[in-house]
C-alpha cells in the first residue's frame, strides 16, 4: 500500500534496471533544502533523490559537497528547511523514533571512542529499538545479535573491548551493531575512510552480502570514487550541495564528471570492467 | 533456519545477563565491609564513652532490632520505648548519623555518575553543574529566612537544584550542548549562587544560625538524627532505583548522541528525565548533609577504574562504594581531631581534590569521555 502511494507521487523520471524494468525506491528525498541551525546558508538543495530498493547506492562527491548533510536528512538527524523524506512511501515524520530505528539503520561518521565496552555489549545496543525501559533480552534479540556478529565476521572479537581493537575491527563492530537493528534500509557515512585496504574490503563485502542475502537497501557515502564505481549498483554524485548526476556507475562515471565534480583529470575505462584512473588535479580549483 | 536456531541455543547457554563480574561482587563486598567497620567505629566513640564490646552489643541488641515500636519511633517519629542508656546513645544519637552518611554517599555518587553520562563529561557532577549550589542556596534560604518550611527541605533543595541546572543547561544550549560549554556555564552559575549564599548571611539573626549555615555549606553530619533519615530516605530510594533501572539508557547515551538517536532513543527526553532523577538524588543528600564537595565527582571515577565503564556495573558499584567512602570520611571528620568535629566536606575536599588531580595527571584523556 505504501508502494502504490509512492508510485502516485512519482511523476518524474524513473530509474530502470538493466532490463528496463522500473526500480522502486526505498527512500525518497523530495525537494529538500537543508541547512544547519548554526548558519543561515542552505547547504544542500536537492529536487529529488532516490535510493533504489534492494540495491546499494553510493553517494560520492568532494569534501563539503553536502553528502553527509544529505544523509543526515535522510536519517532524520537533520530536519529539512523544506521538502520531505519518505521511506517506503511514508513520511519520516510519521514514525516514532523507535519505529524509525526498526526501519532505518544509521551509522554515523564519527563514532566516539568509547573504549571500555565489549564488542558483544555494543552489538546488543543495536536491539535498543526493540526493547522497552524495563525489558530484558529476548530470544529474538539473541538471534539477531548472533546473526549480526556472524555477518560482520567478528565472532573472534566478541569479548574484546573496543579500545583494544584496530580502526578496521572497530568499524566492523559498529557495523554489527547497526546490523543487529534488523532494518530494511541502511545508511552508512564513510564506513571505509581511514581503514586499511583489508578492512575496507571486509566492510564493503559485509555490506554487499547483507544486500544480496537479505535484500537490504543500502546508501553509503564513499570517499573513493574508483571504489564506489566498482562497488555500487547506483551512484549519486554531489557537487556544491546539488545533485550533479545519478544512475548506474557505467552511465554516471565519465571523464567529464571527474573533472567537474572532483576536479581531477582521469581516464575512465569501461572494458573489461569500469575502472577510474585519476591522473592529476586540475589547476582551476 | 536450522542455523539460526543453533545460534540461539549457543547464545542462551552463554547466559547473556552475565554483566555481574567477579570484580564487581568483590568490590561491593569490600565496600560493605568498610561501611560496616567504619560504622562500628563511629558508634563506639564519642562523649559517652563505651567499650567496643558495649557499643557493638548495643548495635546488635535484638531487643531493639526486633522492636517494632523502636523502629516506628525511628522512622515515623512516634514515642520512643524504654531502652538502656547504651541503646539510646547508639541507636538514637550515633547510628542515625551513620545512616545519613550511607544515604548521602549513595545518592551523591549515583547522581554524579548519572550526570557524567547525561552530559558525556567526566568532569560533571552535581557540584560542577550548579545543582549543589542551587540546592544549597534554596536550603540556606529556608533555614535562615523561611524556617517554617524545614520539613520540605528535600523538595526545596530539588527545586533550587533544578532551577540552577536549568539555567546552566539554557546557557550551554546552542542546538545541543557540549561538555565544555556545560562546565563553563556551571562554573558561572555556581559563582552566582555562592554569592547569593554569602549574601544570605547578612539576614541571619544570630551567630548560631551563621555557624549552622557555614557547617552546612561545607557539608556536615554533625547533629544529624532520625529526622534527617526520615527526610532523605524516600527520595533517595526512589532516585537510586530509577537510576539503576536506567543504566542501559545511560550506556546507550554513552555511545554518543548521534548513535543513540539512530538507535531510536529520544535523546533530549531521556537526558532530561535522567537529569531530573540525578537532581532528586543530589537534593536528598544536600537537604540533610549540605554541600559535600568533590564526592559526586570522584566516587564514580574510583568505581569506574575498578569495575569498568559499563553503567550497569558502575551504578551498582556506586551504590556500595559511596556509603563506604562517606562513612569513612565522616569517621575522619568526627574523630580525627579528638575534641573538635570537622565538617565532613572538609575531609572529602582535602582527600577528593588531590585524588582527582592525580587522576587527571594519570589519564591522558580527561574532560571528554
What does this structure look like?
The complex is a heterodimer of chains A (285) and B (369). Chain A is α/β, with parallel strands linked by helices and 285 residues long. Chain A is 33% helix and 25% strand. The radius of gyration of chain A is 19 Å and the shape is globular. Chain B starts with a helix and ends in a 7-residue tail after the last helix. Chain B has 369 residues and is an all-alpha fold. Chain B has a single domain (22-362), classed as ABC transporter involved in vitamin B12 uptake, BtuC.
Compile the SSE list and pairings.
The complex is a heterodimer of chains A (285) and B (369).
Chain A lengths: L1 H8 L15 E10 L9 E9 L3 E5 L6 H8 L7 E6 L2 E2 L5 H7 E4 L11 H7 L13 H14 L14 H14 L4 E5 L7 H18 L2 E5 L3 H7 L2 E6 L2 E6 L1 H4 L2 H8 L1 E6 L5 E7 L4
Helix pairs in contact in A: 4-6, 5-6, 6-7
Chain B lengths: L1 H12 L8 H23 L7 H8 L2 H4 L2 H9 L8 H34 L12 H14 L8 H20 L6 H22 L6 H12 L7 H20 L1 H8 L2 H6 L4 H23 L5 H13 L3 H25 L8 H19 L7
Helix pairs in contact in B: 2-3, 2-6, 2-16, 3-6, 6-11, 6-14, 6-15, 6-16, 7-8, 7-9, 7-10, 7-14, 8-9, 8-14, 11-14, 15-16, 15-17, 16-17
GO molecular function (chain A): ABC-type vitamin B12 transporter activity; ATP binding; ATP hydrolysis activity
Pfam family, one (chain A): ABC_tran
Keywords (chain A): ATP-binding, Cell membrane, Ion transport, Iron, Membrane, Nucleotide-binding, Transport
